Amino acid sequence: MHRGKGMKFVGDSRVPGMEHRKPNIPKDYSEYPGKTEAFWPNFLLKEWMIGAVFLIGYLLLTVAHPSPLEGQADPTDTAYIPLPDWYFLFLYQLLKYEFASGPYNIVGAIIMPGLAFGALMLAPFLDRGPERRPSKRPLPTAFMLLAVASIIFLTWESVANHDWEAAEAQGQIAPEVEIDTSAPGYEIYSNSACINCHGENFEGAVGPTLIGLEHTPEEIAEIAVNGIQEGGAQTMPPSWDGSDEDLQVLAEFIAGLEEE
Amino acid sequence: MLNKLYDWVDERLDITPIWRDIADHEVPEHVNPAHHFSAFVYCFGGLTFFITVIQILSGMFLTMYYVPDIENAWQSVYYLQNEVAFGEIVRGMHHWGASLVVVMIFLHTLRVFFTGSYKKPRELNWIVGVMLFGVILGLSFTGYLLPWDMKALFATKVGIEIAASVPVIGESIKLLLAGDTTILGAQTLTRFFAIHVFFLPAALLGLLGAHFIMIRRQGISGPL
């Protein structure tokens, strides 16, 4: 680049005049050894192939597995067993071991992750030799392999020890239904024994929720009169003691309760 | 037309040196999967950047519907997922992208580590890379709370308790993140939203710029 005297500038800007410019011509790659090639457009077109294959896998994952959404956050639910996203599971698992939890919490929560992250950050200053092959620098290689193995092991342990069925049940979105409390069906319901076990809004209490049942009105009426017997035990007592007309209205009302 | 536009800008700003530097930089044989299939390990960094771009784009679309407030956050995500056209796809890409970007940055770190590419003169780029890893994990952690569902709330509770156990400054970190010494609620959600959408992406873009300028200055490390 020409500098100093004789330099022509564009107008009053610091950009040099056209006669001092670098020509916009691609480099001659014959001067490069072997199969070295230019980034644009030669290599980028090939790299995009890998990007495209990756993108297809990514989209397949997205359409095959809708992203999860649990019920709305309820801070009063003290029974909820928390679980972080899967890539933090190893840290979470670490805190379950005796000498990394309770009075030693600081070991598992701060010291061990802090040391690992610090060592990773300072790797160029801890491993200063000129050798680059993993086999020629056994200590860094061994430490990294140990760290990766620990992460995989801890993640595995965490997944194996977690009760996934309970986790799915505790996170379910509770069905929400607008109950028409002025309907004759609701009046019959609230005056009967049903409401004591199935709740004011059919949400369930001692008995299960009555929303979104897959029974026909006839089946519901039959259950209300005779109860449910499962494996010799009476899981729901015979409950109905009103008139047949009311029973039919009630059964149809309950069968019509659908999740929104 | 495009050439004329380029010339018009170039005459005024002399962009040719920058453009030729980007376009002509040599891609050696040992990092090119077209020549050695095993060189695909050199693609992990590029793929991390690719997902990062998708995360930024999908995240921008998500904020068109998302409301960072405890009354409406969950409702808006539910609506987005179940009612909005392609909402499930956009949220799905953001959700799964968050996992994939962690996987890819991990693999990229391992590649750089096991090829010894962090050694002199590339120490600074390695440090920026590790900071990027930290920022990505921070984005994952703060983003996990935003849907305001059960697992989000309770995982964040655990995370904040861990942060609070840091000696001396633990309580201050907790106060900074949660906005309150005891309650994890409305303040926490808006703070996590701000961190997830403004603070950390700003740090991410700055560090990414430094990462790329350094790799362009030094070139990719040679074959083992």
Based on the model shown, name its key terms.
heterodimer; A: about 260 residues; mainly alpha; 3 domains; elongated; B: about 220 residues; 9 helices; globular
What would you note in describing this structure?
The complex is a heterodimer of chains A (260) and B (224). Chain A has 260 residues and is mainly α. Helices cover 46% and strands 3% of the residues of chain A. Chain A is built from ten helices and three strands, in the order βαααααααααββα. In chain A, strands 2-3 form a two-stranded antiparallel sheet. The longest helix of chain A has 26 residues, at 39-64. Chain A is elongated. The mean pLDDT of chain A is 86. Chain B has 224 residues and is mainly alpha-helical. Chain B is built from nine helices and one strand; from the N terminus they run ααβααααααα. Chain B has helices spanning 2-13, 16-24, 44-62, 73-82, 87-114, 123-145, 150-164, 170-178, 186-218, and one strand at residues 26-27. In chain B, 36% of the residues are buried. The model of chain B has no long low-confidence stretch (mean pLDDT 95). The interface between A and B is large, with 83 and 90 residues. β1 of chain A pairs antiparallel with β1 of chain B, so a sheet runs across the interface.
SSE layout and pairings?
The complex is a heterodimer of chains A (260) and B (224).
Chain A: E1 37-38, H1 39-64, H2 89-94, H3 105-121, H4 123-126, H5 138-161, H6 164-171, H7 184-191, H8 194-198, H9 217-226, E2 228-230, E3 233-236, H10 244-255
Antiparallel strand pairs in A: 2-3
Helix pairs in contact in A: 7-10, 9-10
Chain B: H1 2-13, H2 16-24, E1 26-27, H3 44-62, H4 73-82, H5 87-114, H6 123-145, H7 150-164, H8 170-178, H9 186-218
Helix pairs in contact in B: 3-5, 5-6, 6-7, 6-9, 7-8
